[in-house]
């Protein structure tokens, strides 16, 4: 079974979010609850049905992921873009935060 996470878009600002282990919507994919076996997948599928009626998020979807170097990596390009931000400018979106963190680490 492929690893799966549950993703959606938050209605208040459109940001891509992922369902965390505590049932709250997280802004980074690495904070997502990962279904690693059938029982966990069933739990995510149930959460997907409940979230469909939730007024906090829309476009609730199960996503296949794999772990790479301690981080979650979506297998579909669409989900990779949602996880990192716009593809046209690296100084915008979530990838800008990563660049800033990397620059700070190099400077230190």
Concise structural overview:
It comes from Georhizobium profundi. The chain is an alpha+beta fold and 108 residues long. The chain is built from 3 helices and 5 strands, in the order E-E-E-H-E-E-H-H.
**Main β sheet profile:** 5 strands, antiparallel
**Based on helices, strands and strand pairing, what is the structural class?**
alpha+beta
Q: Calculate Rg over CA atoms.
A: 15 Å
Coarse morphology: globular
| Quantity of strands, as a count | 5
Spans of at least 5 consecutive residues whose pLDDT stays below 50 are none
What's the end-to-end separation, in Å? 42 Å
The percent range for helix content is 25-40%
Within the largest sheet, what's the order of strands? 3-2-1-4-5
Strand composition percent: 25-35%
Average residue pLDDT: 85
Number of helices: 3
Which sequence of SSEs, written as H and E, runs from N to C?
EEEHEEHH
Q: How many domains, as an integer? A: 1
Any overview of this molecule?
This protein is α+β, with helices and mostly antiparallel strands and about 110 residues long. It has one domain (about 5-105). It contains three helices and five strands, in the order E-E-E-H-E-E-H-H. Strand 4 (about 55-70) and strand 5 (about 70-75) form a beta hairpin. The protein starts with a strand and ends with a helix. The mean pLDDT is about 85.
């Amino acid at each position: 079974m492929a690893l799966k996470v549950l993703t959606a878009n938050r209605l208040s600002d459109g940001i891509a979010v992922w369902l965390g282990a505590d049932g709250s919507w997280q802004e980074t994919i690495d904070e997502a609850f990962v279904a690693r076996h059938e029982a966990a997948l069933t739990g995510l599928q149930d959460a997907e049905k409940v979230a469909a009626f939730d007024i906090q998020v829309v476009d609730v979807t199960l996503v296949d992921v794999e772990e790479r170097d301690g981080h979650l990596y979506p297998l579909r390009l669409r989900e990779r873009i949602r996880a990192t931000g716009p593809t046209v400018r690296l100084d915008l979106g979530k990838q800008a935060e990563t660049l800033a963190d990397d620059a700070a680490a190099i400077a230190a």
